[in-house]
Amino acid sequence: MRLPLRDYFRKKNTDKSTASDQLPRHIAIVMDGNGRWAKQRGLPRTAGHHAGMVALRRTIRYADELGIQVLTVYAFSTENWKRPRLEVDFLMRLPSEFLKTDLAELKEKNVRVTVIGDREGLPHHTRDSVHKAEQETAGNTGMVLNFALNYGSRAELLHAIRNIVEKVSSGSLDSGDIDETTISNHLFTASLPDPDLLIRPSGEYRLSNFLLWQLAYAELWFSDVYWPDFDKVHLLEAIEAYQRRDRRYGGIKL
Ligand code: FPP
C-alpha cells in the first residue's frame, strides 16, 4: 500500500514507523532558480538567494517531520566562483546567517550538520561557522543536513583517486583490492547512503556536477517551480513520484 503522505501531514497521530517504510532515505536537492525568481519580481539576484534560504528552512522542517534520514543541499558549486564578486560574497555569508538563526532549532530537532566540498577554498568566516555547526551537532542522531559547499563532483572524484593512488604507492592498499566500495569510501559522502531521490526545480534537466557517482541509481524528479517557491506540496509530489517508481537497479522483477 502506498504511503498516504498528505494524510501524514494532516493527521497528527499517523504512525511514523509505517509512514517511513517507503520513504527515500536520502534526498538530494539542487536549489536552482533563485536568480530567475528574483528577476521576475524586479529584485536583485541576492534577494532570490535570501528567499532560497527561507525555502531551505521550511524544506528542512518538512523533511525532518517526515523522517527523512539525510538531506543534501547544493548550496555552492566549484563553478559558482565565476559569478560576480558581490553575489559570491553574499552566498558565502548565507551559511553563517542561516546557522546564526537556525542552529538552535536544528540542535533541538537532533539534526546533525555536515559539509561536503573543498572547505580550504572557503572564506574563513564561512568555514568557521559550518565547522562550529558540525562540532556542536556531531553527537546528534536525527536527520543529517548535509551542505554541499564549494562542491564539485569531478573534483571530489579526482581527490578520491589521488588518495587511492597514494595508498597504493605507499603499499597500504593493494591495487587488486580496489572496488566500488573503495571509491565510495574515499568520497566526501563516505559515511552517508547514496541519495535515493534527486530533486531539481526551476525547469533545468541536468546534474551540474552534483554527486555524479552517488546518484548512479537515484530516482530523478524535475519541476518548473523556482526554488524560492518550493514548498511542502512539491516535496510531497516528489516523494509520491518516487514511491510510484519501480527501482530495479538494472535487474528485472520476477
Ligand atoms: C542556484 O540558483 C542557486 C545557488 C547557486 C545558491 C543556492 C543557495 C541557496 C538556495 C541558499 C542556501 C542557504 C544556505 C543556508 C547555504 P541560480 O542563482 O543559479 O538561479 P538562476 O538559475 O535562476 O539564475
Can you summarize this structure?
Helix content is 45%, strand content 13%. The protein is an alpha/beta fold and 254 residues long. Bound molecules: farnesyl diphosphate.
Order of helices and strands: HHEHHEHEHEHHEEH
The first-level CATH class name: Alpha Beta
What ligands can be seen in this structure? farnesyl diphosphate
Largest sheet: 6 strands, parallel
CATH superfamily: Decaprenyl diphosphate synthase-like
End-to-end Cα distance, whole Å, is: 19 Å
Task: Note down, in words, how this protein is organized.
- The protein is α/β, with parallel strands linked by helices.
- The protein has a single domain (21-152, 194-244), classed as Decaprenyl diphosphate synthase-like (Undecaprenyl pyrophosphate synthetase, 3-Layer(aba) Sandwich), CATH 3.40.1180.10.
- It is 45% helix and 13% strand.
- The protein has nine helices and six strands.
- It has helices spanning 5-10, 16-19, 34-40, 45-66, 85-108, 124-137, 153-170, 180-185, 232-244; strands spanning 26-30, 70-77, 112-116, 144-151, 197-200, 219-222.
- It has a six-stranded parallel sheet with strand order 3-4-2-1-5-6, with helices on both faces.
- Helix 3 (34-40) crosses helix 4 and helix 5 runs parallel beside helix 6 (124-137).
- The two termini are 19 Å apart.
- Farnesyl diphosphate binds next to helix 3, helix 4 and helix 5.
